[in-house]
Amino acid sequence: MRDELRDLYQEVILDHGRSPRNFRRLENPTCLAHGNNPICGDMLVVYLDLDQAGRIEDLAFQGQGCAISMASASMMTEVLKGKTLAEANKLFECFHDMCTRDDFDPAKPGGCDVDAMERLSMLSGVREFPIRVKCATLAWHTMQAAVKGEQEISTEGAP
Known about the structure:
Layout: H1 3-18, E1 31-37, E2 42-50, E3 56-64, H2 67-80, H3 85-100, H4 114-120, H5 130-147, E4 152-154
Parallel strand pairs: 1-4
Antiparallel strand pairs: 1-2, 2-3
Helix pairs in contact: 1-2, 2-5, 3-5
C-alpha cells in the first residue's frame, strides 16, 4: 500500500475511533449482544432495531476498545443501516474475507456490496497483523450473535 493511502486510511480509522458514529444505546432494541475480545480488552454491546421484514432500521453500539475496534463498529453501523439481515450477513462474510484473505477482491462475483466494501477497505490493513483481525471483526461477530439471539460472544477461539 502506498504511504499516502496508508496515511489516509490511518486518519479515517483514528477519526472513527475518536468520534464513533452511532455510539449510543437504543432504548428498545429488537436484539442485542455483548461482545468481548479478551486478548485486546475490547468490549462492545451492539443494538439492532429490525422492522417487520427483517430490515435494519437502526443500529448502534456502546463499549470500549482500541481504535481499530471502535472504528470498525462505527463503520459497520453506517454501512448496515437499511440493509436486510441477508445483506448484513453477506457483508460480514465479505468483510471477514477482506480482513483475512490476501486474494480478496470485492469485485469478484459472489455478491459483495462493492460500495460498502470500498468504505470498509480502510480496515483492510489488519490483514498484515493477524492479532488485530479480532479487533476489526468483534463488532461484526457481535452483530451476528445479536441477530441469532445469542446474548454473548467472544473472539477467543474465533477465526
